[in-house]
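2024-03-11 09:14:02 DEBUG pipeline.ingest accepted 1 chain
2024-03-11 09:14:02 DEBUG pipeline.ingest length=426
2024-03-11 09:14:03 DEBUG pipeline.predict start
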Amino acid sequence: MLISLRAALLAAVALLAPFVVAQELPPQLTQQVVDLFAGNGSVPSGATGAGIGATGGRHTNNWAVLVCASRYWFNYRHMANTLAMYRTIKRLGIPDSNIILMLADDVACNARNAFPATVYANAGRQMDLYGDGIEVDYRGYEVTVESFLRLLTGRHPDHLPPSKRLLTDASSNVFIYMTGHGGNEFLKFQDNEEVSAFDIADAIEQMWEKRRFNKLLYVVDTCQANTMFSKFYSPNIISTGSSSLGENSYSHHHDLDIGVAVIDSFTHYILEYLETLGKSSKATLQDFFNTYDPARIQSHPGISAELSQTPPEEILVTDFFGGVASVEITPKEAELDMLRAEVPRWEASPRRKTIGRGMEVAWARSTGQRADVPVRETVGGAWKRPLERTRQGVVEMGTGLKEMGVVVGLVGVVYLLLRPQTGKET
């Protein structure tokens, strides 16, 4: 008898469920919402997913990989090169979450450092590059050829945390900076192993095949640096180095109190130029390259733009050295937009704070009206927030179903209490 009663209650709930849900969501759209949550919905007729970053050739986020490939006290300048570049791109808007910093990190607390826990790169020691806010992702013996190549190609063990991964996509502009000791088509890592120009070229080709970048800028400061990008063959790469084949790359100046050279010439003059720019600068890469002066750098910097589909004079410096905050309307948001357009009564519905509010972003973007939900300006999170709010709305719609189930259950209990007793159950 109890089993029969439960079956009857479940049947009643199943029959009443569509009517409860229909109070807020038209039946013809129910499946579209379910498909949307499952991630397999298609854009309704008339909807478009076009927007910033939806087509090739546009980028929506910038990433940087900064590598100090050397170690030991007398290579102080290489760590200073990297930290100075790190500070500059952070000032121009690239967040720590989008920067992978690889350092031996054996200088700041070295016993020979006259200024403990500090690193300086400018005359007069006016700025400590090792101050608060530095986030080193690969430190000490973690900085290897293997870890660098795995970082580029995304071939990591499952346990590696996201902070040590280059989480780029086909809309990412990637800036790679390397400094250390090198030679003809090789760069030494930790004075123990070498990475070759072929290794880096093949890793970047894998990045391209796996759609891990939109455009890539490769900058290297080492002896015979221009040979490090001589083997590149993937599209959309611009490269520049500090010295030609057979040339050394020299330090800029020494600090007598520290006792060693504190920065290399090529990096010093790059940073000198970048410090004149702001986040909204319209300076191009060609403007940047035009500042190269072999007499001051004491070597002949090289530039390679043959692989780039866009010439340097059409690419902003901040497309690589700065941060980007672009709004992307994805197909997911287009679906939300169409659902809202098809159900205008949600505007005045009591559920507007659930479903309607979840679609406010897509609605505001399509009509130009003010949204009462902050617009998310990150690629990965552009559609998640309205989708989460919509999901919450559907959950709240289920509250009506639960209430109906309670009512039906109470009716069943009353029936059991009041029904005539015809016999004893066995």
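2024-03-11 09:14:41 DEBUG pipeline.report The longest helix spans residues 384-418.
2024-03-11 09:14:41 DEBUG pipeline.predict end
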